[in-house]
Amino acid sequence: MYIPAAFRSDDPDLAWQLVEDIRFGCLISGGLGLMASHLPFMVERGDAVRLVGHVARANPQWKELEASPVLVNFLGPNTHISPSWYTTSPRAPTWNYVAVQVRGRVRVTEDRETLRRMVLDLSALMEPDGSPWEAAKLDIAYIDKLLPGIVGFAIEVDHVDVQLRLSQQNNADDQRKVRAALGAGSLRERQVAETMTRYLGRLPE
């Protein structure tokens, strides 16, 4: 991923926080031909970092995942930025966005206990706070009926790139004007405004 210096972050904690915020990524592999699947991911942090997920057994991509390195692309909040929002002119339209790209090698698993734990952990992780539904209370027999339909995997991460294009190339006044315009806009625009508020202070000067 091409990242201009103004938009790059090399903070690994920020990288995994962004992945956990976005959660839904595009798994791209090229072992036997270029293939992509959109999936939710869990992050396992330890001495090394792993991305964990599963795919439908009917999805042929799983058969080639161990053949070569893979790329997972996470695209966060993003929106058009109007030149009319700047104090200085002339200016060109641009796009604000958050993106994380992760590279690594995959280990596939069909072990039932591992798959069961993956499904329960992901379900518990993603269920909203206060929800009356609990994955842990599901009938194990019901879960076991579902397991033959999926294949699990873990990606041993060897590289991660983070790009936060959040108007930080502009002066403080222009940043405020962009954030204010986005904050009064559509849901997509408000999400980018919130992201600017949350992350601009964590980027290098």
Quick summary:
Helices cover about 30% and strands about 35% of the residues.
> Can you name the CATH architecture?
Roll
Number of domains: 1
Structural class determined from secondary elements = alpha+beta
CATH topology: Pnp Oxidase, Chain A
Helix and strand run: EHEEEEEEHHEHH
The stretches of 5 or more residues where confidence is low (pLDDT under 50) are none
Give the strand tally: 8
CA radius of gyration is 20 Å
Averaged pLDDT, please?
93
Strand residue content = 25-35%
The N- and C-terminal alpha carbons lie at a distance of 21 Å
| Count of alpha and pi helical runs | 5
* CATH classification, class level: Mainly Beta
Query: What is the CATH homology-level superfamily?
Result: Electron Transport, Fmn-binding Protein, Chain A
Main beta-sheet annotation? 8 strands, antiparallel
Helix content: 25-40%
Record the SSE blueprint.
Elements: E1 8-9, H1 12-22, E2 24-29, E3 35-40, E4 42-45, E5 49-56, E6 70-81, E7 94-109, H2 112-126, H3 140-146, E8 150-165, H4 172-183, H5 187-199
Task: Fill in the keyword field for this structure.
205 residues, alpha+beta, Pnp Oxidase, Chain A, eight-stranded antiparallel beta sheet, 5 helices, 28% helix, FMN-binding negative transcriptional regulator, Split_barrel_FMN-bd
